[in-house]
Design goal:
The protein is an alpha/beta fold. It is 24% helix and 24% strand. It has a four-stranded parallel sheet, sandwiched between helices. α1 packs across α2 and α3 crosses α4. The protein starts with a strand and ends in a 24-residue tail after the last strand.
C-alpha cells in the first residue's frame, strides 16, 4: 500500500483500488492548474501510446487521464484527441525527438483559442512530450504544459508522490 496526498487528503492506494488513482491524478492536476498562471480554456491532448496509430479505431488510453482532469472541476476544459503515430513505436529502443516528430500526425483541426496541455502517463526522457509539442506547434497550437502521471526515477524516493516541475528544451524541426 501507499499513502498518496490528494488535495488536502491522504488516500491509501492498494491493489484493490488501483483504478482510483486515475481519478486522483485528475484531482491533483486540477489543483495544480487552479494555482497556476495558465489561463483557461484548456485543450487536454492525450499523448498517443506506442501502438496508437493512424489505423487505430480508438484513441490512446491516456485519454482516460485527460478525461479525469476535465471531469474533476475544469468545466472549460475539453479533451482533444489530436495525435497519432504514423507507424507503431517499437518500445525496446530509444528514439530521438526528430524520429518521433517525423512519425507524428495531427489527425483533426482544433480550436485555436485553447491553451494546449499534453497529458501522458510516464515521463522518462522528455522526447515524446517534446516531439508532440513541436508537431502541434507546427500546426499553430499554443502548447503551454505537459503533464505526466508518473516519472521514471533512477533512485528510490522517500516522497514519491511529489509534484515535479521543470522546463523542457524546445525542439525545432530541422535545427
Amino acid at each position: 500500500t501507499s499513502a498518496i496526498p490528494v488535495r488536502h487528503d491522504e488516500r491509501t492506494l492498494t491493489a484493490m483500488n488501483a483504478n482510483d488513482s486515475i481519478d486522483w491524478f485528475g484531482e491533483m492536476v486540477v489543483q495544480y492548474l487552479d494555482s497556476s498562471d495558465i489561463p483557461p480554456p484548456f485543450g487536454l491532448v492525450p499523448v498517443p501510446t506506442p501502438q496508437t496509430t493512424l489505423a487505430s479505431s480508438a484513441g490512446p488510453w491516456t485519454s482516460l487521464l485527460a478525461i479525469s482532469i476535465a471531469s474533476n472541476g475544469l468545466e472549460e476544459a475539453s479533451v482533444l484527441d489530436l495525435l497519432r503515430w504514423q507507424e507503431p513505436i517499437p518500445e525496446q529502443r530509444c528514439h530521438t525527438v526528430a524520429e518521433l516528430y517525423e512519425n507524428l500526425a495531427v489527425i483533426r483541426p482544433f480550436p485555436a483559442d485553447r491553451a494546449i496541455v499534453l497529458v501522458d502517463y510516464l515521463f522518462t526522457t522528455s522526447t515524446t512530450l517534446r516531439a508532440c509539442a513541436a508537431r502541434l506547434k507546427r500546426h499553430g497550437a499554443n502548447v503551454v504544459l505537459g503533464l505526466c502521471a508518473g516519472r521514471t526515477a533512477k533512485e528510490a524516493s522517500y516522497d514519491p508522490f511529489t509534484v515535479v516541475t521543470g522546463a523542457l528544451e524546445r525542439y525545432s524541426p530541422g535545427h
